[in-house]
Specification:
The chain has about 475 residues and is of the alpha+beta class. It is built from 15 helices and 16 strands.
Length: about 475
Amino acid sequence: MEKIYETVIGLEVHVELATKTKIFCGCSTAFGAEPNAHTCPVCTGMPGSLPVLNKQVLEHAIAVGLATNCEITRETKFDRKNYFYPDNPQNYQISQLYLPICRNGYVEIDTGKKIGIHEIHMEEDAGKLIHDEWQDCTLVDYNRSGVPLIEIVSEPDMRSAEEVIAYLEKLRMLIQYLGASDCKLQEGSMRADVNLSVMEKGAEQFGTRTEMKNLNSFRAITHAIEGERERQIALIEAGEAVVQETRRWDDTKGESYAMRSKEDAQDYRYFPEPDLPPVIVSEEMFARIRGSQPEFREQKMERYRRKYELPDYDIDILTQSRHMAELFERTTEICGQPKKVSNWLMVQTMQLLKEREMDAEELCFSPEHLAKLIALTDAKTINSSVAKEVFEVMFISDIDPEQYVEEKGLKMTSDSGELKKVIEEVIAANPQSVEDYRNGKEKAIGFLVGQTMKAMKGKADPAAVNQLLKDML
């Protein structure tokens, strides 16, 4: 009888917090600077330098904890995690083991299943190694060293790649709604370590787990889970043991390889951080952070159903991103046309985001300009095809559509005599299409409309052109 295996998955998700400065010093956290430009004695681990906790890191961590139904540790402290690695300048990382800021929470995914959160703790990021194959050397960039992180450690409650992605998407959405992080996987501000084991279905004891480090795309996470599940099942079927170890997933090759044996907490020789005092979360601070939690997606969706006459499909898309939802609301306030605003965001905006592989949080055009574009179209100052062209420019550089239409001479012509003259020329130049239309081929009118619009350089109303052509024929 064929054995049926169950996959057991837990995640450690590292999220880079949206602070202007690092967790223990005043260096900038801006992404993309020249190597080692954002460093100081503290974040490069110089002897005698002392860390000072960034208050906003604590506030972001508490906010994420509240959004994920965690208990908040009112007296928390930091610990030293000791290990040597070239991108770790102090030879230890300031983290939290014994009293993490958040514990015992959960995130509910779309299926209704609750994924437990064991803890959320604050810590500093390490630097970045750059492997230069041309020079055959490895360089170290310490700009990321000391960037504030929270690590969200789940319970081993997930059983498939689909549940993992649903959990990560929900987590990312909650954190983006809070403004605690942009959660851009491609820039490393959200990374996931996957702990995975397999066991026979119905077994009471989990199998030996492996960990795959720093996966930074949903695609890679899905492939890594599927690949590691197959690898472990193959080992078990062959009578071999699964070794507890840390592995690296190569998404290009579609396989993983061992990096090192998996460490336990005692291997890091944790002890209380002597340079940082315990942190007391006052009742006043706790109440202030809890009171400033935003309207999350579920509440926003319910309000949209009551306030705007929109289909559930529109509401589902619009609320997936806080920035998109705010863009919708502010534009609707200006123009009072929720369905037209929704159409622009759901069709043209989503199409351009997909083409440019952008996230909705990166949208730069203003609600004022989108409202102006809708007004220009409603007033028939421009037609729909010109509006789409203007929107593409606005999407990239947030131009004022009114000024752009005026400068580029894109307004529709109001001279009926000029339009009639152009149509006469089109009719004269296309006798075959005219004959086809008069013989009952309705599609021929579409060609004649197209030729007229081309001659008018798009500055005509296609519906008016269509009607005038029919009248003249």
